[in-house]
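Lab meeting minutes (informal)
Scribe: AK
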Amino acid sequence: MFVSDLRIDPTTAETTARALDDRAIGAYLGLAIGDALGATVEFLTPREIRDQYGEHRDMVGGGWLRLRKGRVTDDTEMSLALGRSILTAGAVVPRAVAEAFSDWMRTKPVDMGHTVRRGISLYRRTGATQVPENEQDAGNGACMRALPVALFTLGAEPAAVVAASRVQAHVTHHNHLSDAGTVTVVRMVQSALLGGTRNQLKGLADALVAEDGRYGYDRRRMENPSGYIVETLRAVFQALFATDGFEAALVDVVNRGGDADTTGAILGMIAGALYGRQAIPRRWLNALDEETKSACRTQAVRLLHASPSCGAADRSP
């Protein structure tokens, strides 16, 4: 099954404008909540998490970054920067994306990956909006911020979705393995937005595994996942498909430790789209930084309404 097969039918309850808005907001809030929840236990092992928190279930801040409760990191901040660039330009434009990331770096963010810093620095020095392809850059930094592309290209032709995903990714990450994983996450979010089931999302994950067996997730439990895109997505897929709700999936993945803010963010965006914002626990929403919460809600709707799917629905008789 391809996401392009999931076209909006305005006569069905599952694809009403209200349902789409709900899932889009759920995806963006899920991203931010997964980021903030996971940041507390980032770089800890599962045993260290158990020793310190028992089971990490509440948004308490702290962690190696010593964040205040409800504060997000680069995963959410770069997503919002990317979304602003798309809305301003009306498209996923390489220079606009690079400039948005450069502006974000000027804010002296609390955290930034080495590959991201290197890509933005290259743009500042040379104006290049695409880093050279590099076999060593198979990190998760492009995937963690891919949600705005998923929302904005909903309903676009598959080739256009892939092209937009690569434009934003290649500003900092140019790697075929990372590209494949990022596009799969975009497709999974889009499928969920259009009412796709968990089994349909699993079909998309399995298609990625068929394309590249390194992504195989039906192996041992992936604990302490690194920033390597394969380990990140193996943990995300395992947690998503082993649980049956937003909270259970997010608690599962962040308690695996490692790069927990990013596994939390990626799982949060997929599960938020799948289960909708009503599935997000109230205690997590209340704890999330208010400015971030407002920005996520607003941008989710604006990006979605600028997408081909919403445009098609608006033109329907």
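Next up, CB showed the second protein from the same session:
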Amino acid sequence: MSIVRHIVLAALALLVVAGCIRENRDDCSGDVYLHFIYNGDGDTDIFPDKIECVGMYVYSLDNSSFHSEYTFDKNDLAELQGTHLMLPPGNWRLVLWGNAAERSMLDKNWGTGHIAEPGYFDGSNSYSGTDSLYFSTIDITVPETLVDVNETCYFESSHIKMYIKLDGFADMVDVSTGECAEIVLYHEGSAVYTDFTNTPSEDVCEVIPEIFPDPDDPDAYVLFYNVFRFDEDDPDSKIVLKFKDGRDLYTVSLKDFIDRYNIRVNDRNEVIIPIRIFSTGTGVNVVDWDIVNVDPGFE
């Protein structure tokens, strides 16, 4: 009697699985295992050094719609540099953003997905530099047989780091607040957003990063900020230093600066552009800034 009962139960289980696959696929899901890797500009995985959190957005390619989203924090990624999720049979697109935090907001709708600073979405048009963003996307198919899917998500950079030192501007400090009282730095020609293919927008904006006193140099200020990727030959990417009353003080063409100091941008993931702007008392000069030994505490 016991043997007959087991046979019946096994047959019923097979019927349930068959019904799941053939009739109502919404009631069954396949296992999807993802591994996250970021090699930067080499062959060694440096994901743990560069990416502290990941937001993942899942889209159905079968009906062109948003399906679900997941967030993995630093602890999650330390435990498992990837994830396991369940998806119904079908064709799926996964879009992943690394390090999207307080300086990032998303439009996650199918076909219009993009990421930008909050000022873009709230209409304030206030931009001070984006997060140190990384991007990955992958298309997968979960088969009707529910065979496990194992894939690797390779990340790439979505930002460029700007390290700027303003040297010899001590006379412009507000001694009561310690802030730079007379000048403002504008990064002109920065993409407003990057879409869900990691393509920067043609629409541009002015980024106005915060200026900090240099803790190691009483005559200097420093700026550490990120912008979305830009082409090294873009003539519209500029650093403009102005007095707060609107008068121009100095303009740096990033194209010319990149050419002069042989900085690689287009074929690199990890890009740092270090600029030293210093006042001579009678004028302003610009050189590259040796940041090998600089630890700005900024990612």
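CB comment: The longest helix spans residues 2-22.
No objections, moving on.
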